[in-house]
Amino acid sequence: MQIEVLNLDGKTVGKQELADVIFGIEPRADILHRVVTWQRANARAGTHAVKTVSDVAGSGKKAFKQKKTGNAREGEKYNVHMRGGGVVHGPVVRDHSIDLPKKIRSLGLKMALSSKLKDGSLIVIDSEKMSVVKTNTLFNYYTVPTDSDKATITLELESDADNACELYYCASDKLT
């Protein structure tokens, strides 16, 4: 299986042989679903929380006297039905991550790459040096003109001694 290698101007500079072990796999929806669910669950912070009755700051002083006010009897003012009180059954801090075997993770990545290659939305770009290390320059290089609307591009930056960066999109030696 071969794919065209583009330069940063979007012109073809050669072809690259791709390994069928990685790019020749038939995608399965169940494996891709498990991997995407695993990634999205692990990305969740789980830091959402509310204060319950015991967490709300304040004294336990009785709001008003028990009798002769005409109001219903009331204890402390931080109960859940009072304004400024605690929250019942609200979110608590927890870990949302799930476990997924390494072989399934690897298989999911291979299936995603295979699917992108079959759709024609995988682009391999030959490595070149950037003359000026600026975000705008990187953005102009990163938006390579292609036929498809979406493209999967792997970006890898390496620093040199004279503080210039080399830009690699799917370095061709890592695809075999």
In short:
This protein is of the alpha+beta class and 176 residues long. Helix content is 26%, strand content 15%.
Question: How is the secondary structure organized here?
Answer:
Blueprint: E1 2-6, E2 12-17, H1 20-23, H2 29-43, H3 102-119, E3 124-129, H4 135-142, E4 155-159, E5 165-169
Parallel strand pairs: 1-3
Antiparallel strand pairs: 1-2, 3-5, 4-5
Helix pairs in contact: 2-3
Describe this structure in words.
The chain is of the alpha+beta class. 26% of the residues lie in helices and 15% in strands. It contains four helices and five strands. A five-stranded mixed beta sheet has the order 2-1-3-5-4, with no helix packed on it. A hairpin with a 5-residue loop joins strand 4 and strand 5. Helix 2 packs across helix 3. The termini are close together.
Q: Roughly what is the average pLDDT, rounded to an integer?
A: 77
Q: Which parts are unreliable, with pLDDT below 50 for 5 consecutive residues or more?
A: 149-176
**SSE string:** EEHHHEHEE
Rg, Å, rounded: 28 Å
Strand order of the largest sheet: 2-1-3-5-4
Key traits:
176 residues; alpha+beta; 4 helices; disordered C terminus; five-stranded mixed β-sheet; 5 strands
